[in-house]
Design brief:
This protein is mostly helical. The chain has one domain. 80% of the residues lie in helices and 0% in strands. It is globular. The two termini are 16 Å apart.
Length: 196
C-alpha cells in the first residue's frame, strides 16, 4: 500500500479518470434526455444561464477595466466600461424578464432562439462558401454538407412561429448533451484504460 505522500499509480489514475468520464457521460445523457423531453423548460434554463453569464461578464469586465485603467488609454478604458455596462444591463434585463411572468420569460426565450437562428444562418453561408472555394481539399463535401444543414436549421428557426421557438434552445441543448454523453461513454472513456 502506497504511503500518504505517494502519487497514485498509472493504472489507478487511469481507472479513476475512466470512472469520472463514464459518470460524466451518464450525467450528460440524462440531462440530454430531460432537455429533449421537456424542451421549453430546458430553453428557459439555458436563457437564465445566458442572463447570468452576461451579468457576471459585465461585473468582471468592470473590475478588470478599473484595475487595468492605469495601463490602458482613457479611450480604451472608456469603451471597455461601455461594453461591460451593456453586458450588465442585458443580464439584469434578461433576469428581470424571466422573473416577471411567463409571457416575458417566453419572449426572452424566443429572442434567444431567433439569435441562434441568425447565427446558424450566417455560419451555414460561411461554411458553404469556404467549402465551395476549397474543393481541392479532401473532405470538402463534409464542409458543404455541414453548411447546408446549418443554413437549413437557421432558416427553419427563423421561420417558426412564436410558440414553436420556445422549444428550440432546449432541444438543441438536449441533442448536444446526448451526443456528448454518447461520445464520453463510447469514445472518450477508451483513452483511460481499465485497471488490470
Amino acid at each position: 500500500m502506497p504511503s500518504p505522500g505517494t502519487p497514485p499509480s498509472r493504472p489507478a489514475m487511469g481507472a479513476a479518470l475512466r470512472a469520472f468520464t463514464l459518470a460524466e457521460g451518464v450525467m450528460l445523457l440524462v440531462l440530454g434526455v430531460l432537455a429533449v423531453v421537456f424542451p421549453v423548460l430546458a430553453s428557459q434554463w439555458v436563457t437564465a444561464m445566458v442572463a447570468i453569464a452576461f451579468l457576471v461578464g459585465g461585473l468582471v469586465g468592470w473590475i478588470s477595466s478599473l484595475l487595468r485603467s492605469t495601463r490602458l488609454s482613457r479611450a480604451i478604458t472608456f469603451w471597455r466600461l461601455v461594453i461591460s455596462t451593456l453586458f450588465l444591463v442585458m443580464g439584469v434585463w434578461m433576469i428581470q424578464q424571466l422573473a416577471s411572468g411567463p409571457m416575458a420569460a417566453a419572449a426572452q426565450t424566443a429572442a434567444l432562439a431567433l439569435a441562434i437562428g441568425v447565427v446558424f444562418l450566417v455560419e451555414g453561408v460561411v461554411a458553404i462558401l469556404v467549402s465551395a472555394t476549397h474543393r481541392q481539399i479532401v473532405g470538402w463535401r463534409w464542409g458543404l454538407a455541414n453548411g447546408v444543414v446549418t443554413l437549413a436549421l437557421g432558416l427553419l428557426i427563423l421561420t417558426m412561429k412564436f410558440w414553436s421557438l420556445l422549444w428550440v434552445v432546449g432541444t438543441l441543448v438536449g441533442i448536444s448533451f446526448l451526443f456528448s454523453g454518447i461520445d464520453l461513454l463510447r469514445f472518450s472513456a477508451s483513452f483511460h484504460p481499465e485497471e488490470d
